[in-house]
Amino acid sequence: MTASTSVASRVATGRYRWTICAMMFFATTINYMDRQMLGLLAPLLQKDIGWTQVQYAQTVMVFTVAYAVGLAVFGRIADRVAEKRVYGTAMAMWSVAAMLHALASSVPGFAAVRGLLGFSEASNFPVAIRTTAVWFPKKERALATGLWNMGATVGGIVAPAFVPIVAVMWGWRAAFIIGGIAGFVWLVVWMAIYRSPQSNPGVSAAELEYINSDAGETEPAEAKVAWLSVLRYRETWAFMVGKFMTDPIWWFYLFWLPKWLNESNHIDIQDMGLPLVVIYTMSCIGSVGAGWVSSRLMARTQRPNFARKATMLVCALCVMPIALLSQVQTLWFAVLAVGLAAAAHQGWSANLVTLVSDVFPKRAVGTVIGIGGVMGMVGSFLFSGVIGETLQRTGQYWALFAAGALAYIIALAIMHVLMPRMTPVKLRDE
């Protein structure tokens, strides 16, 4: 089949699945806007509340613990409850939690609302991955994941563009309220348009056939997988290692970059928008670019093991220049190095989560994503403690960036040992 014929075939099937992908993109954008606000407002809040580096780290740790619990819960729910209901309920929960930040006035108060936000926001990735598996054939999943996952970086762009303005004009409490309102707008649209592919009037017969075109995707909808039974498989452990070692680096960027810009480069809240926009714009390119490259390699070679791992290797190598931050004290070198690392992480992440839907049947995807996500948050919790103590004692970031430079290549090596070939997992039902 020629490239033009392939494109024509995809157009003929219909496009409604991309509408669902767009909704997941906007949900992820709102998700990251809400969580990014604390980091952006940290210099302002530090003056109002007076928390120390360790107290700020502890607040971040509360978020990560709650997020880990939420991943386990929502990962399980994603495989048992319809996507419409679970996504809608979770969006309502995290939008309320975002607005409750406006009522917090102490370190314990912020810790409490961050915990609620973390628990409910954890729903996004397991439910979105499950929804991607429902709506897309394997050959399109990495691209679709890269597109909606780009919302994480768009949220990182939008937040620094508007949060400082809102905070200066109306105060930091207004920023949290606006973030919550955005979630409820999304919720109204989601509840109005979402139906499963089989019952959605916007999905043509040709598109439904294309969505279900993968061989072996005929398992009964009522089939369930026991939660801990997936731990029997090396593929689950490979995913867990990838999340445990690399998720902490992304959370470091997310929560500590504004503080780093403020403390190391003396940039206040009014001026940090441009550097953060550049960093997260680069992240967008990495998310979509790596998803596109992986999907193209998959289409050309029909070798998912090569397509995913080769793309992840390139991403791992692109993170490494961040280790040079301690040697070059130029602001824009630092911004570009962090931007490249953040772009590489998003490309890595898009392919890492796609591995799960490549090898596991749909009924197990949410469960595996949830368990792997918990491991990612365990790593993030531990690393947050290290960050707080390191900065409290030394005030230096170089060791933290150096750890980030090596994490991905080590993780990929371990993953390859655990999963040298990507072959479909045949679940042994209990």
UniProtKB/TrEMBL annotation:
Domain Major facilitator superfamily (MFS) profile, first and last residues per copy: 20-423
> What InterPro entries does the annotation carry?
MFS, MFS_dom, MFS_Na/Anion_cotransporter, MFS_trans_sf, Sugar_P_transporter
- Keywords in UniProt for this one? Membrane, Transmembrane, Transmembrane helix
**Keyword check for Hydrolase:** no
Q: Which SUPFAM superfamilies match?
A: MFS general substrate transporter
One cellular-component annotation, GO: membrane
Which GO MF terms are attached to this record? hexuronate transmembrane transporter activity
Membrane-spanning regions, if any? 16-33, 53-74, 86-104, 148-170, 176-194, 276-294, 306-325, 331-353, 365-385, 397-418
Q: Which CDD domains match?
A: MFS_ExuT_GudP_like
Q: Which Gene3D superfamilies match?
A: MFS general substrate transporter like domains
Give the protein name, as stated in the record. MFS transporter, ACS family, hexuronate transporter
The species this protein was found in: Paraburkholderia caballeronis
Q: What is the lineage of its organism?
A: Bacteria, Pseudomonadati, Pseudomonadota, Betaproteobacteria, Burkholderiales
